[in-house]
Amino acid sequence: SDLMGSKMAIGNLEMRIPFTGPKELAVMESGFLFSDLNIFIDGGVAWNRGNKVKMSKSDSDRVEAIDGDGNPIIGSDGKPVMVYDSNVKAPVFSAGVSLRINLFGAMILEPYYAIPFQRSDVKFGVFGLNFAPGW
Question: What is the domain range of residue 21?
């Protein structure tokens, strides 16, 4: 829910290195396959009117979880389950590497490996694949 909202602020810092392409620019010469190696860090926050935006969440931002009927959810230890208040938003950040491959001007294929810093459900980074319009 940290990435949902009607307003957003995002930022990106990238270092792109031409990997395949013209001899003068790229690490490996290629007359038909153009690609870039990239190192990146991304960050952003999304919010709605009435949300509280903070730089990070703390234990004071936790509230009791409730079920569909409005009743508190009780954990196996007999205590209420605590979750972050959905009205409190904080930026999320990730860093990683990618390879952008220009498929003959028709589209860009970009496999990536990113480390999402705020996710506790992953121990390492995640792999993904982006498709984008051609250059």
Answer: 7-133
CB atoms closer than 10 angstroms to residue 57:
15
> Number of structural domains, the chain?
1
Q: Is residue 1 part of a domain?
A: no
Strands 52-53 and 34-47: unpaired
| The pair of three-digit structure tokens given for residue 120, joined into one six-digit string | 């506790």
Q: What pairing do the DSSP bridges indicate for beta strands 28-29 and 7-21?
A: parallel
| Residue-wise pLDDT tens digits, 53-95 | 998 888 888 899 999 898 989 999 999 999 888 888 999 999 9
Q: With beta carbons less than 8 A apart as the criterion, state whether 42 and 57 touch.
A: no
For residue 2, tell me if it sits in a domain.
no
Domain membership of residue 43 (yes or no) is: yes
Cβ neighbourhood burial of 36 (10 Å; 0-12, 13-18, 19+): buried
pLDDT for 74 equals 92
Give me the chain's average pLDDT, please.
91
